[in-house]
Amino acid sequence: MARIKSMEYFRVPPRWLFVKVTDEDGNVGWGEASLEGHTQAVEGCLDAWFDKFKGHDADDIEHIWQMAWRTGFYRGGPVFMSALSGIDIALWDLKGKKLGVPIYQLLGGKVRHKLKVYAWIGGDRPDEVEQQALARKEQGFHAVKMNGTGDVCWLDSPSVLDDVVRRIKVVKNLGMDAAVDFHGRVHKPMAKQLATLLQPHRPLFIEEPLLPENLGGIKELSQLTSVPIALGERLYSRWDVRPYLEAGCVDVLQPDICHVGGISELRRIASMAETYDVALAPHCPLGPIALAANVQVDAVSSNFAIQEMSIGIHYNNTGQDIETYIKNPEIWKVEDGYINVISGPGLGIEVDEDMVRKLSKDCLPWESPSFRGPDGEIREW
Fold this sequence. Notes:
single chain, 9-stranded mixed β-sheet, 14 strands, lyase, galactonate dehydratase activity, magnesium, Mandelate_racemase_C, DgoD-like
């Protein structure tokens, strides 16, 4: 038995929160608890849980998970689950390193040796989209994801939808697959039109076509289009996911490993989705620890479809990327639309702790931007 001796967290740019767990024998594991725009809240939860879990056997990952879930009365939600994610991922990393095996070996062994991936592109004009899509193609990607719209009101001019169609046509003409992220910005009167307009262009999927609290609307929309509907980044446990599976309104499930309680819960959600014939495509516009953790679950999940990775994403404009904080960035090399399953022990990444500590000094929390309409109304970001 090796008890948990210490836990630390590190706020690092561009907007990530890393967690380090050390046991009494000196074994170390790294996790990620990033919750964009709510870093301080997660840090407060981690402070409380660090005191609670100190001295417990670091091998008892499930027991610690259940303690976090069941012994606090209030449970779930983005803050609690993101904090738990950081701890859970770190404990799995520690255990895998201690045993000298990748985490996926502890989850039953891999069912594939490489993973299909996609990257994000931006741009409000077709020429910008073409440049960015070509750059992704040169990096080895075959698929990209793009925002559907900018900010829109509840009932906007139908003309704002025409640009969306023009942009996806540009990407498709390059021979690439394109997913379109509605980002919860579009309300039902516009979402119905947009889904209909996009259908002939066969998007890989449409993501968050409505806000997740609108289950009835999402179900209605799913019956109007043949385009696969994807969602899940704002669902925080298997209990949050269950109503969407039971309603039959999601085709591609996108849980975020940093928001659902880590590797332990993502593995359960993946298995639950498989029973409903729903594909797994984990959400991950986050850091290298989150991506490496996703890889472990992707490798063992028969319903895995495609993995998001944030390399070169638009918000990495502070100079940091998923390669910044690790010493083996070659693991993220994309070839013919795929990355290889990581083979090293634990998460398979070598965290550059000196860099983490250096860049965490005086790092300010990232704040979510907001949209306002011409009349001053607040719109969905």
